[in-house]
Design a protein that fits this description.
The complex is a heterodimer of chains A (178) and B (597).
Chain A lengths: L1 H16 L4 H16 L5 H12 L4 H15 L3 H12 L2 H11 L12 H64 L1
Helix pairs in contact in A: 1-7, 2-3, 2-4, 2-7, 5-7
Chain B lengths: L1 H4 L6 H38 L3 E9 L4 E10 L7 E12 L1 H5 L3 E13 L29 H15 L7 H43 L5 H53 L7 H30 L5 H8 L17 E14 L2 E12 L10 E9 L1 E10 L6 E13 L2 E4 L5 E4 L2 E12 L2 E10 L4 E4 L2 H4 L4 H4 L9 E9 L4 E7 L1 H70 L4 H17 L1
Parallel strand pairs in B: 4-5
Antiparallel strand pairs in B: 1-2, 2-3, 3-4, 5-6, 6-7, 7-8, 8-9, 9-12, 10-11, 11-14, 12-13, 13-15, 15-16
Helix pairs in contact in B: 4-7, 5-6, 5-11, 5-12, 6-11, 7-11, 11-12
Classes of the chains: A mainly alpha (178), B alpha+beta (597).
Chain lengths: 178, 597
């Protein structure tokens, strides 16, 4: 009963069982943090999410960090706005963005928005620090967690397999009787 | 190539497996685009209007960037069983380039077969939605026409006033008719009392005449009593004289009261001055009020629909995530813009159908980001030929609208102005020229509506019950020479509480005619009442005076006879105190006299 209730969680835990080297876990966390910092509803967020899914980042840490960082990212808006405003007022960026903004599709990137640009810049800025800081942590603490996850998943798999065998046995018995 | 594919950082198995899924998603999106967009339009339309929005079908053509809708019906939130409008078909040409630049720009839209205020078979009320209580907006020219109606009512009431019961002279005459006989009755009673005393005295004298020597002691008191009776008789005579004088004085008082009453009648039946303005407002106010309410209702609706920002937008804009930098060479542009919208359809004015064609330009909900105001040009044909131009400017801090309407020949059915149960004017069928110029700035409205109906027949009407002695023929000349109906309404105030000042040639003309008719009647009633008062007084007092005269003579005669005899007895008694025979004879005679009566 409890397991059935927890089944969605178990499904989610599966994403931690693949591409789960410490580096992949850390890069997933960094990527998720960056996506979480950027306001949604623009093409940058969509493209970064596609990158997260397409590359061998760990999806578990990536999705979890998107969820958690997005919850608190708006509190960082003043900081991101400040970053964005400074970046957009840099001549080289300003002129280049202005040129790009005239192109089709580019306006959907919202490169004219200070928080989007600031969020992207902050996300890029924290990418490597998050990666390098989290890698040792994953090396140290993830294996026991991984073991527990795998145990849970194995248990579930075994139960599922035994259920299937029972069903097959009862079906064959019924067939024999018939 | 192989080495590139073996590059393990990219999750190729994931990408390869997801590509068909992505293709399927895109296919699903393409397939669900029409129903999705239809649902979105219905949902957002219903949220904005507060009533059901129905769309028969919606087709999008991505290659030509075209959206087509058919059988659109938008229910009226105030009247759920009718539609605000229906559209047979709608086509929108979208600018692809703008869409790629994060903007929705409709180059040209066309709404065909628009019908206003059509009936519905099912209710257009949304579930859980309640019809908003439409306040009748008491401030909306509620005073208009009130003064004119008050004049008509008070004047008609004057014709009904029972002035007769309030006349002082008649009341005084009635009082005197009762008081005079009472006074005479009192005197008569005293005269009768005197008679009784005389009879008693006669009895005493009779006894004296039989045995005078036995009653010598009674002679003196008899003499005293005789004197007293005589004095009382004289006093009664004086009283009678006084009453007669009082009657004369009372008659003078009645004359004075008559003069006062004549003044009172004149005052009571005086016709208050009626200015044509009040009567104009009484006659035209209600109709104008209704039309203006409809017009202002539309303006409010258009304002609500084209409102720059919804509450959610305001909240979002007040808490924006960052700031959008304006790059060089880029213009501030609205996210959604309809450059041109052509609307053709039908409508009714006074149940007469007309067709219209309108072109609307620069429609956007973000007017502040657009350099042009919304402009509407409308041309109608049919029963109502009309040209209208409206400029809805939301670019500044204050929303302004300017509306110009020109209707050269609006068919006007025969109608009745004013209250048919009181005073009204029947206006014949004809064509009217209407011109309206209204400017709305924020909540304030200012403008003028001009109405001219030429070669029109008009005649006043007053119901039988209200007419009293006023003849319809007396009223008809009031508007005999008025062939044009000119109305000018100056509008000011606010959208919710506009003030209307109406000017028309109808009011002053009718006021003059009515005044003449009513004044004639009231003058006649004045004379009639004065004569009636005189007649009543005459009737009341003539008989009373006649009766009093008879009574006066009777009483006087009684007193005269008694007086004479008493004087004789007294002289006999005092002069011949020893001559008992003479005394007895005289006493006998007095006795006989009193007995006779």
């Amino acid at each position: 009963m409890i397991l059935r209730f927890l089944q969605p969680v178990l499904h989610f835990l599966k994403v931690f069982s693949k591409d789960n080297s410490p580096q992949q876990l850390a890069s997933g966390l960094s990527m998720g943090t960056m996506i979480g910092l950027i306001p949604k509803g623009n093409l940058i967020a969509v493209l970064l999410t596609i990158v997260l899914f397409a590359f061998r980042f760990n999806l578990g840490t990536g999705l979890l960090s998107i969820f958690l960082v997005s919850m608190f990212a708006f509190r960082l808006d003043p900081i991101m706005h400040g970053f964005g405003e400074r970046i957009l007022h840099l001549d080289s960026i300003y002129l280049n963005f202005a040129e790009w903004h005239k192109l089709p599709i580019v306006p959907w990137l919202s490169l004219d928005n200070t928080v989007v640009v600031g969020g992207l810049a902050l996300g890029l800025a924290v990418w490597f620090p998050v990666y390098h800081l989290s890698t040792p942590l994953f090396i140290r603490y993830f294996p026991p967690v991984q073991a527990k996850i795998e145990k849970l998943l194995r248990k579930k798999k075994a139960k599922h397999a035994s259920g299937e065998t029972n069903e097959a046995n009862s079906a064959s018995v019924q067939g024999a009787r018939a | 190539m192989k080495s590139f594919l073996q590059f393990r950082f990219i999750r190729w198995s994931y990408v390869a497996s997801r590509l068909p899924i992505l293709a399927l998603i895109l296919l699903a999106m393409w397939l669900s685009l029409n129903p999705g967009l239809r649902w979105l339009l219905i949902y957002s339309g219903q949220s904005a209007i507060g009533a059901k929005v129905e769309i028969g079908s919606l087709q999008t053509n991505l290659s030509s960037s075209r959206v087509e809708l058919t059988d659109v019906a938008v229910a009226d939130p105030q009247r759920p069983m009718s539609n605000l409008f229906e559209i047979d078909s709608a086509e929108f040409d979208l600018e692809t380039a703008a869409a790629l630049r994060k903007r929705l720009v409709i180059h040209e839209g066309r709404l065909s077969g628009v019908q206003l205020h059509t009936q519905r078979t099912t209710s257009g009320q949304l579930e859980k939605a309640e019809i908003e209580e439409t306040s009748d907006q008491p401030g909306l020219s509620d005073k208009i026409g009130q003064m004119g109606e008050e004049w008509v009512n008070s004047t008609l009431d004057k014709l009904e006033t029972d002035v007769e019961s309030e006349l002082h002279s008649i009341r005084l005459a009635k009082e005197l008719k009762e008081r005079w006989p009472n006074d005479y009755k009192a005197v008569e009673r005293q005269a009768d009392d005197l008679k009784d005393r005389g009879e008693q005295l006669a009895d005493v004298i009779e006894q004296l005449s039989k045995k005078p020597l036995d009653h010598l002691d009674k002679i003196e008191p008899t003499m005293v009593q005789l004197d007293r009776i005589r004095q009382d008789g004289l006093r009664l005579k004086n009283d009678l004289q006084r009453i007669r004088q009082q009657v004369q004085q009372d008659k003078l008082a009645i004359e004075q009261a008559k003069r006062h009453d004549e003044q009172y009648i004149k005052e009571k039946l005086r016709l208050d001055s009626l200015d044509g303005q009040s009567l104009t407002e009484y006659l035209i106010g209600p109709e104008l009020h209704e039309r203006l309410t409809t017009t202002l209702g539309w303006i409010r609706w258009v304002r609500a629909m084209t409102s720059t920002e919804t509450e959610a937008q305001k909240q979002a804009e007040s808490q924006p995530r960052g700031k959008n930098i304006l790059f060089p060479g880029m213009l501030i542009q609205p996210d959604v813009l309809i450059k041109t919208l052509i609307v053709d359809g039908t409508g009714t004015i006074d149940e007469q159908p007309f067709t219209f064609l309108a072109d609307i330009h620069d429609i956007t909900h973000q007017s502040k980001k657009h350099d042009q105001p919304i402009t509407v040009n409308l041309k109608a044909q049919g029963s109502a030929e009309m040209y209208a131009k409206a400029i809805l400017d939301r670019r500044g801090d204050v929303a302004t609208e300017q509306v110009l309407i020109e209707i050269p020949a609006l068919v006007q059915q025969a109608r009745t102005l004013g209250n048919p149960e009181k005073l009204a004017v029947n206006v014949g069928r004809g064509k009217a020229h209407i011109r309206a110029n209204l400017t709305f700035e924020d909540e304030n409205v200012v403008g003028r509506i001009e109405f001219r109906q030429a070669n029109v027949q008009m005649e006043p009407s007053l119901p039988e019950a209200e007419r009293k002695e006023i003849l319809l023929t007396d009223l008809k000349p009031a508007l005999q020479h008025v062939s044009n109906l000119d109305i000018q309404a100056d509008i000011s105030g606010t959208l919710l509480k506009p003030k209307i000042k109406v000017h028309s040639n109808l009011g002053p003309q009718l006021a003059a005619g009515l005044k003449q008719a009513f004044q004639g009647e009231l003058d006649a009633r004045q004379v009639q009442l004065s004569q009636l008062a005189h007649q009543k007084i005459e009737e009341e007092l003539q008989q009373a005076e006649q009766d009093l005269l008879t009574k006066h003579q009777d009483i006087l005669q009684k007193l005269e006879i008694g007086d004479k005899e008493l004087a004789m007895i007294k002289s006999d008694i005092t002069g011949k105190i020893g001559g008992s025979d003479q005394l007895l004879r005289a006493g006998q005679k007095l006795f006989n006299n009193f007995r006779k009566r």
